[in-house]
Amino acid sequence: MPLTGFTNFNLGSVAITGWTVVGPQVSIVGGQFVQGASFPAGEGAQWLDLTGLNSNTVEGVTQSVVTTAGNTYQLSYMIGNTTFTGFGPTSRVDVLINNAFAFGDTNSTASPTIQNWQTFTHTFIASGALTSLTFLNADGPADNNNGLDNVVLLDLGASGTPTPVPSPRR
Fold this sequence. Notes:
The chain has a single domain (5-157), classed as Galactose-binding domain-like (Jelly Rolls), CATH 2.60.120. The chain is 0% helix and 49% strand. The chain is built from no helices and 13 strands. A 6-stranded antiparallel β-sheet has the order 1-3-6-13-8-11, with no helix packed on it. A 5-stranded antiparallel β-sheet has the order 2-7-12-9-10, with no helix packed on it. The chain has a two-stranded antiparallel sheet with strand order 4-5. The mean pLDDT is 89.
């Protein structure tokens, strides 16, 4: 989705490929967006602002992914935070797995001129053939920035460790 600037997506929107918006609104931020501070992506050219445009409530995105029951999965994602005036001291994201709270992570790095990114990684065991992943803004109503970027889900298999790929024979 080649978007630049600040583009809003409202409740129920499925315009963000693979994701459905929950709560009032989220926004894709892309390009060289500046609003007092600079807001680069953590990875690539775009990122998701879980606070939307001055919405600042419990809102985010969800999607169901195909999984194998009993397999361990590694979920990683980046949380962006800036402490520029009006954006709050931290950015917290709550992750729900199958609609139940699983993880809550906070990027509390002080950064008044540029959004900084921190990567968080967790594992979980899938309970079925589909697993719902939901990322929610957990910042207070006075915080108008909560970045989410580079969401990666890896299947570690039944043993919980990646299966090595055999090297080619000569």
